[in-house]
Amino acid sequence: MSTIARLSLPAFEVLWEDLRAGAAIPYPFDITQHGTTLDERARVRNDVHADLERRGLARRGRPEPELEDALRLLATPDTSITVMGMLDVAREDLVRALVAARGRYVVLAVQGTEGVQLDLIKEAGLAQAAVRVLPPRPPGPGRPVTVPAAALQAQTNQSGIRQNVRTAGNDDVRALREMLSGPITGTGHFTAHPHGTAVTWIDTPRGRYASMGTDWLTVAPADHTGLVRRISQALAPQAR
């Protein structure tokens, strides 16, 4: 993996507009336009271009080819994975990321509080790149279970989850209740496109779990390898 660029939020949205890369900045990024008046907008644009040229990321008002190609890939990938969730629920540590691919060309974009980092992924596939945005965690104790979706809401409201779990009585639901008996420390989802299939991760003090499905969910202990396997399944054509 090699870094293409670290862009401020104004730089990302100015370049996106300059390149007419897409109708809107893609989900899950949350980047608003900087500058409310024409004068403010012109000043923001000039500052962005000056900074990019000073850093060797643009020339004569145009981004360097590697940066331009990466932004265009984010707009029109053949396949992609969006990552959205909380790395740490207590601290409200939000993660927003997009992995985009066309053939063997893969770019990972991660939005932080100050900007967006673009990395070229050379030695890993789409699923591996997506999982890298999470801190490593061991798989939690327990076994794979299949439960109604109502038994596990895709949210971090633990009281709600526990209430739903207690309403059912089969062995798998009881096993799920035991696996999620501690507080949920992190949660979110990977969504594979173009199929739209989602894989949810759930972190607890004892380890990580992965959930996949629609009306019925399969929930299982999962480390990085387990998440990669499930996301790869979500990318497969039969996942539709």
Automatic annotation (TrEMBL):
Record bears the keyword Cytoplasm: yes
Major location category of this protein: cytoplasm
Top-rank taxon: Bacteria
Family annotation (InterPro entries): EspG
Key words, A-Z: Chaperone, Cytoplasm
A Pfam family the protein falls into: ESX-1_EspG
Keyword Chaperone: yes
Subcellular location per the Swiss-Prot or TrEMBL entry: Cytoplasm
Family that this chain belongs to: Belongs to the EspG family.
Full protein name: ESAT-6 protein secretion system EspG family protein
